[in-house]
Amino acid sequence: MSLYYARDLTRIHGRRTVLAIDSLDIESGRIHGLLGANGAGKTTLLNILAFLDVPTAGHLGFDGRPVRFSGSHLRRLRRQVVLVDQHPVAFSTTVAGNIEFGLKIRRIGRRQRVRIIDEVLALVGLEGFRNASARGLSGGETQRLAMARALAVTPKVLLCDEPTSSVDVENQAAIVDILRRINRERGISIIFTTHDRQLAAGLADRILYLDHGRLVATGWENVFSCTVEGHDERHDRCLLPGGRRLLLPRGLAPAPGICRLSIDPRAVQLAPPARETEAEQGLRGRVVLLTAEGEQVRMVVDAGIRITLFIDPARYRTLRPGIGDEVALAVQPQGICFLAGR
Fold first, then answer.
1. pLDDT beyond 80 at 272
2. Residue 339 contacts by C-beta under 8 Å, 6 or more apart in sequence?
3. What's the average model confidence in pLDDT over 149-156?
4. pLDDT digits (tens, 9 = 90+) for 134-152
5. 164-181 residues labelled b (16+ CB within 10 A) or e (exposed)
6. Would you say residue 130 has pLDDT above 70?
7. In angstroms, how far is CA 281 from the centroid of its own chain?
8. What are phi and psi for residue 157, nearest 5 degrees?
9. Could you report the per-residue pLDDT of 295-330, keeping only the tens digit for each?
């Protein structure tokens, strides 16, 4: 079931288009990760989904109905969706007082407020802080308190902006566990933004990638500026940063000029360094990063540009490339996409 849908959604600040989404559907009851670089439009999209910002144009739907950005309609929607900021602010009262604030606004009786406060404090692991000053909490504890405040009002959707970026490792693990539990046990739909690919891969049921305000089909790490130099009978010639050149099948690239190029990490293949790749769009570089990501090995190669690819563990064990090793890469044309803008 669709929780949100967006069609031709744009947000313009001044003369700059910060969000331009042709089509987006977000499923109910699942965890969605929103991945992208700084300035990609993640927080802008999150604020629109929280009904705190108004799109410049386009259509947004929630729970099967179109959203009307009018006061009375938005007040009803905001009771179902809660946004936890990257740097939440605690009120200058106790931990319990912070949680109780939203419950009082909703005119919930005292006995029920006490029960709810105890439940959510146990859920986020802050039972021992009930009467502590909220201003004395650490960054990670404050983040967990913000989640407790959100959960106390029983939202249908929890939106989290970079929930683990400003906390220590122990609290990162606790926050990830909290998000999994409330999704599994309470059926709360979760949408979170992050720069961390490993967090997104380990927590999200679905990952959405934003680049310059647009949804792209692949990870934002393999998005580059490039110059389409021209065409011949067989090839489109594309010059990448660092002077590396791709020869692509004729008709794949747009007209000559500067544009942006996305390479699907799944379309990048690794060849033994001793063998010249037969692919005309081959690249060579040195391995600069190796990490385990899910059931695959993630590799970053410095080939004048930093290219991310994923390797099956069996193939990795056969080739055994290490940090600093030279490798040859081949890019499958079907994994290349040209994006609007520069």
1. no
2. 211, 212, 214, 216, 223, 259, 260, 261, 262
3. 96
4. 999 999 999 999 999 999 9
5. beebeeebbebbbebbee
6. yes
7. 30
8. -130, 135
9. 788 888 988 888 989 898 888 888 888 999 999 988
- The residue whose two tokens read 């650490």 is 138
Which residue type sits at 270?
Answer: L
d(CA 47, CA 60): 13
What does the block give as tokens for 101?
């604030």
Enter the tokens of residue 3: 């929780």
